[in-house]
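**Backbone shape codes:**
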Amino acid sequence: LGLIYFEARFISRDMEKAIHYFTLAARKNDKNSQYYLGLIFYYGINVSKNYEKSMHYISLAAEQRYPKAQYFLGHVLINSKKFDRAIYYFKNSAQNGLIEGKFTYAFFLHDGKYIEQDIYKAIILYKDASSFNDPYSKNNLGIIYKNGFGNKIKKIIGNAIVYFEEAIHQSNDIVSMYNLSHLY
């Protein structure tokens, strides 16, 4: 019921009722309701913004291995410059199957700025997300194969072209268009 009142698909939006029903379900440890309450209070959707309440509910959902909550918490922590904790939640969201989490955790492994670089794990995660048509993962795989990666990954221009073209075909990804144009 909370979701019906929140999304207003079949009836007009009523945030008071949405919060009421989400709260009832959240008290019963429903991770979806905890997540939505967290979003409502974080963004101040028809209520005053309340980061303490938001983080309380998002954390409850994240601790129940709800990948969207883990991913959201990772972003909040990145913005707070708490990189270790953020990466922990991105990794968990990836392990719990969230495509955006796989891309983000792969990016940190690829970059190696805040955690130990592991291009092989990054490629596995990028390929996994790519198989679900994530254009960002396809683009990053294209970049890896376009440039190679030290002495670990050889340049394979044909692979780069395939990944860039897939991202372009799938979502008109302008970054992949730019990267592909450099190959030609």
